[in-house]
Amino acid sequence: MSVRKYLKRVSYVLLVLAMFFSLTACSGRTESMPPASEVPSAGADSTSAANTVVNKNDPIRITTLSELEGTSVGQVMAQALIANGYEIVDQTGSSASVDIMRQALLNGEVNMIWDYDGDAVSYFDTSWDPFYNFKEGWELIRDYDLKNNNVVWLEPTPANNNGLIACTSKFAEDNGLLDMDDFAEYVNNGGEVILVAPSWWINGEFKHPLMEEAYGYALRDDQFIVVEGLNERMVAEGVDGANFCLIFNNQGSLNELDMVAILDNKGSVLRYSYCPVISKETLDKYPGIEEILNPIFSQMSDADVRWLNEQVQIAGRPGDEVAIEYLTEKGFME
Q1: What is the pTM of this model?
Q2: Which of 34, 119, 207, 228 is disulfide-compatible with 38, CB 3.0–4.6 A?
């Protein structure tokens, strides 16, 4: 509604203002994430973009992980649907674990999630080898879930959130550390290493030991600082002599701390691409969802996800606002 159109009609000013604020309050572009129990809304932007609600009174229920990327990447998925006229129930950032999130989809409690293709090695009995390569593992879980669970895995991202070793940009430049072959050479030539990481990664059968085997180096127990979770700030600040740490490749804090991930150039650890996952029943009813999301996720790079995470984690911006900016700049929204 244009306010200027009614400026000459003084008697209607209050009515117009009341309607304006009412529409604003209902808009999908809120400053904070809606609670999971909130009633679904297509949002003002979606109806104006699509001119109609595609799934009126049949909202797409979306849930994602409670960790940072559940909100950042999850909102890309949610806002893309809203912008194309879909009503959703927005439960992004509400699932406590991958298992809970997946089970909610399989049980029909939600219609859509996003998951990592690398997580699929625990979903069925399969060789892990394809999951080290882009799209190969995704193809296996795509075929398995479609046949056994009536679930469809949409296109995976080139972005890969696997666990890597990181250091400050200056340290990497000073020591010529671009990839893990460089790191192995540095270690084997007696370079100082104090690596901050949780025990599950240090000792995990498919974690750091795979890197040691693939690149031909070995770290002693006294070269680790064992922490719960991740603590890249210890390396950025040089706490207790720490100069390396475990990070996830797309952490939003890397740019802020001027740190770099050391490339796993031999693909020694599993890939973790982001994939929208949807019930076949829902996709059969609304095949346009695939046409909306596949172009977005198939182009999403590491730099893209790092930016999304940085905006939410470091800048403190709402995930929906960041997702809308991202989708607009990439040409998926007007």
Answers
A1: 0.81
A2: 34
